[in-house]
Amino acid sequence: MSPTPPAAVMILAAGAGTRMRSTTPKVLHRIAGRTLLHHALVAAAELDPGRIAVVVRHERDAVVAHIGAVAPGALIADQDEVPGTGSAVRCGLSVLDATAVAAAVAADGAGEHHLDTEVSGPVVVTSGDVPLVDGALLGALVEAHHDGGNAVTVLTAEVPDAGGYGRIVRDSSGAVLRIVEHKDATDAERAIREINAGIYVFDAAHLRDALARLTADNAQGELYLTDVLALAREAGGRVGAMVAPDAAAVEGVNDRVQLAAAGASLNRRIVEGWMRAGVTVVDPATTWIDADASLSQDATVLPGTQLQGVTRIGAGATVGPDTTLTDVEVGEGATVTRTHGSDSRIGAGATVGPFTFLRPGTVLGEKGKIGAYVETKNATIGAHSKVPHLSYVGDATVGEHSNVGAGTIFVNYDGVSKSRSDVGDHVRIGSDNTLIAPVHIGDGAYTGAGAIIRHDVPAGALALNSVPQQVVEGWVERRRPGTPSAAAARAAQDGATPGALSSGAQEERAAADAQITAQDKGEA
Ligand code: UD1
Ligand code: CA
């Protein structure tokens, strides 16, 4: 947070962003789980400004709806028909001034006397498409503005290819004179490597005065915000510049190649931040952590892992490899291996995976287990309970210390509606059970292997409904003569192990194998 909060931050987001070639407005594209505009709003909020205003125009309704969702306190300024960044800031400033008047009137009504009927002091202007510009960088610019006693302070960068950008024109003493846009620049000016990053701090009074004097007398016929620098100088104001320490961080996103590059570099910054905070990341290049995710000390992230949304990883937990978690809470010391999960909570010391699908509403208790090839949804599985293998648990509650046998399916859907089932504590569900919801299984109950449970099972009972096993002796040799199975059966009856067949049995099996092979070839 900046020690000198600015009066306001204005975020320009009215441009069309045509180079994205997208039906989604540029500022609503996402990296690290947030839109480009959301990153700018977060950076703005870190300055603790009096107000934040966003200037909108292209796809205005979609952009405004998003601002309402992520930064409901931000003001919306609709840019008028006049093109250019100067016009955008003029619209933004008039909304900020109108809000200052409204606040003054309200304070007056409350018996206070405010003379401010327009914004005064430093106003930061930034852009909705510079997601790597964080609060610390904006704060440093505000400090430079303050320390220099400036009317305008512009953020600049030294880049190898300055094509397209506005250039910073300095005099022989190094003082900033003005900014010249690429299209208006002479060859000598185009040779300048120091570019305008499009991020500024203005003194509100100087800004208001200069905006009123802008003209569209330039190559693009637009009102250029950049002309404010020369106008402020003419009016006797100081103009300063701060060179960004990392040029790549101030580069805006204009197309999807730059979107991916910005996403990768923001991810690197986030992953390195967690490593410095005490998290082990085995392979930073294949680890993707969203801005809203968090990890605790001594968590370990194995390669190929994505932690999305507000995912939280507890102390000492291990996640990955090849795991994607979205809005998942992983408890202390838990292990989550090769898992795809969302909107779920995993208790401390629990284990999940490999090859596990946690759908929304899964809650696993402390030291519980959801194992290989298990899918869960709206399922609460209590502490120390296990669903180890090949199951589907949907719309169900399982108590504590219970075990759900391999291959068990909670049948929650009858084709029309869904119902919940619940299983008590210390229950043993046999393998390959089908539990047809709604069904209640009492504490300490057992069910037999392969049971189809349609009715409630009282506490402590054993539920069975499998059919008695029928054995038809000698069926294979009679009905499948000449097959390897028949040969193996004969050999077993002769008392020989399959590995040591009598010579007669070996010949019989070889003949049978040849016949099967011939059949297979004929059919192929
Ligand atoms: C602008 C600067 C240029 C600087 C560059 C940095 C001007 C005249 N030029 O260039 O010196 O090097 O940024 O990226 O300011 N926007 C609006 N309304 C508009 C036009 C733009 O809100 O009418 C917004 C865009 O959405 C974007 C920002 O302003 O967020 C910059 O616009 P863009 O067109 O990318 O920049 P340039 O005008 O090319
Ligand atoms: Ca432009």
From TrEMBL:
It catalyses: N-acetyl-alpha-D-glucosamine 1-phosphate + UTP + H(+) = UDP-N-acetyl-alpha-D-glucosamine + diphosphate; alpha-D-glucosamine 1-phosphate + acetyl-CoA = N-acetyl-alpha-D-glucosamine 1-phosphate + CoA + H(+). UDP-N-acetyl-alpha-D-glucosamine binds at residues 12-15, 26, 79, 84-85, 127-129, 166, 181, 196, 254, 359, 377, 392, 403. Keywords: Acyltransferase, Cell shape, Cell wall biogenesis/degradation, Cytoplasm, Magnesium, Metal-binding, Multifunctional enzyme, Nucleotidyltransferase, Peptidoglycan synthesis, Repeat, Transferase. Residues 278-524 are annotated as: N-acetyltransferase. Its cofactor is Mg(2+). Residues 10-217 form the MobA-like NTP transferase domain. GO terms for molecular function: glucosamine-1-phosphate N-acetyltransferase activity; magnesium ion binding; UDP-N-acetylglucosamine diphosphorylase activity. Residues 1-256 are annotated as: Pyrophosphorylase. Residues 481-524 are annotated as: Disordered. It holds the Pfam family NTP_transf_3. GO terms for biological process: cell morphogenesis; cell wall organization; lipid A biosynthetic process; peptidoglycan biosynthetic process; regulation of cell shape; UDP-N-acetylglucosamine biosynthetic process. Its EC number is 2.7.7.23, 2.3.1.157. The active site is at H389 (proton acceptor). Mg(2+) binds at D129, N254. SUPFAM superfamilies: Nucleotide-diphospho-sugar transferases, Trimeric LpxA-like enzymes. Residues 257-277 are annotated as: Linker. Its main location: cytoplasm. NCBIfam families: glmU (TIGR01173), PRK14352.1 (NF010932). Catalyzes the last two sequential reactions in the de novo biosynthetic pathway for UDP-N-acetylglucosamine (UDP-GlcNAc). The C-terminal domain catalyzes the transfer of acetyl group from acetyl coenzyme A to glucosamine-1-phosphate (GlcN-1-P) to produce N-acetylglucosamine-1-phosphate (GlcNAc-1-P), which is converted into UDP-GlcNAc by the transfer of uridine 5-monophosphate (from uridine 5-triphosphate), a reaction catalyzed by the N-terminal domain. This is Bifunctional protein GlmU. It comes from Demequina lignilytica. The lineage of its organism: Bacteria, Bacillati, Actinomycetota, Actinomycetes, Micrococcales.
